[in-house]
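tokens incoming
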């Protein structure tokens, strides 16, 4: 089973992908988490990606496509995957479709959230340095509840980068909503609800 989670920055893709992947017993592959891991390890890819990510720009397609397809082939023995943050451009979507050799994506779950709520959430977000689990600062524990890692604020959650990420999303990623809707694969969910309500709707959409 291959599920794509689509939605603007701060929609809750990372929050929901973890639960969804655990429930479906598939692997969670998050392009942003992989890129931050490359940065932390100081790889060539991490160094190349850094300046784009700091400004809230997309990392070039060829770098991201290679990274995700490599990761998917490492996990080819698993029952499937939840893709979180990829594809993000039409070029990435076409590369993914070509790599699947006719097997295709099962569903694209589009988590819709109004822009003012995205800004509020990203401004208050901290994430775990080890496992990248996100929290809201005002209700976050001292250290990550899953792995005990240190919590920190992402560089691209600064207000100027957040505004740019939302604009980049609208210009370059939002067209994928129509792309997948026209293929009959898209299901739209109300992501402005409480986390548990969004999880319930996502699981119902996958089961339908
Ligand atoms: P990435 O890490 O993918 O960032 P993003 O898409 O901007 O998504 P976010 O991680 O900001 O948000 P999310 O939807 O996962 O929300 P979360 O669950 O954390 O990408 C970062 C950068 O990497 C990009 O800008 C780009 O440079 C590069 N990149 C990545 N993929 C790329 C690609 N394919 N191509 C090119 N470049 C790429 O939730 C947000 C906050 O809200 C949290 O604090 C959470 O606790 C809270 N929250 C979640 N749900 C709810 C809810 N229902 N109610 C209230 N609060 C909630």
């Amino acid at each position: 089973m291959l599920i794509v989670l689509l939605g603007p920055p701060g929609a809750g893709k990372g929050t929901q992908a973890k639960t969804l992947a655990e429930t479906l017993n598939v692997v969670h592959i998050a392009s942003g988490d992989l890129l931050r891991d490359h940065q932390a390890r100081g790889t060539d890819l991490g160094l190349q990606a850094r300046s784009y990510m700091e400004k809230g720009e997309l990392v070039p397609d060829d770098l991201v496509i290679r990274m995700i397809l490599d990761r998917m082939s490492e996990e080819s023995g698993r029952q499937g995957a939840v893709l979180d943050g990829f594809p993000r451009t039409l070029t990435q979507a076409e590369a993914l479709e070509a790599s699947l050799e006719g097997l295709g994506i099962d569903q694209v779950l589009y988590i819709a959230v109004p822009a003012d709520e995205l800004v509020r959430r990203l401004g208050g977000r901290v994430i775990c340095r080890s496992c990248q689990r996100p929290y809201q600062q005002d209700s976050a524990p001292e250290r990550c509840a899953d792995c005990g890692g240190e919590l920190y604020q992402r560089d691209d959650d600064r207000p100027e980068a957040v505004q740019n990420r939302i604009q980049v999303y609208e210009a370059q990623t939002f067209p994928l909503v129509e792309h997948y809707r026209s293929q009959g694969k898209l299901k739209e969910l109300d992501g402005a609800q409480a986390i548990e309500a969004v999880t319930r709707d996502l699981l119902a959409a996958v089961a339908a």
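note: The CA atoms of residues 126 and 140 lie 8 Å apart.
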